[in-house]
Write a structure and sequence with these properties.
This is Adaptor protein ClpS core domain-containing protein. Pfam families: ClpS. With 91 residues, this protein is α+β, with helices and mostly antiparallel strands. It is built from three helices and three strands.
Length: 91
């Protein structure tokens, strides 16, 4: 019977961590559900179901994260939300 020796190699893995930012959408008393849903579909490329769920969360909870990613990717999307009259910010 032979014995096999297991050797575990030790190596380091360097990972480049990039901080993800979020677009947070806030509730207001001005915009309709349809407007918010259509804007999320356009600006954040949500599916109709995603946009509807986010609009409901915003309505009942006061805010909702609608998109996550690098700041430079989120900035134009957040600007589209603001231009449409929604209250949003990148955090």
């Amino acid at each position: 019977m032979s014995t096999k020796e297991k050797i575990q190699e030790q190596g380091s893995v360097d990972t480049l961590e990039q901080k993800n930012n979020e677009i947070v959408l806030y509730n207001d008393d001005v915009n309709t559900f349809d407007h918010v849903i259509n804007t999320l579909i356009y600006a954040c490329e949500h599916t109709p179901e995603q946009a509807e769920q986010c609009s409901i969360i915003v309505h009942y909870k006061g805010k909702c994260t609608v998109k996550t990613g690098a700041y430079k990717e989120l900035e134009p999307r957040c600007s589209m939300l603001l231009d449409a009259g929604l209250s949003a910010e990148i955090v």
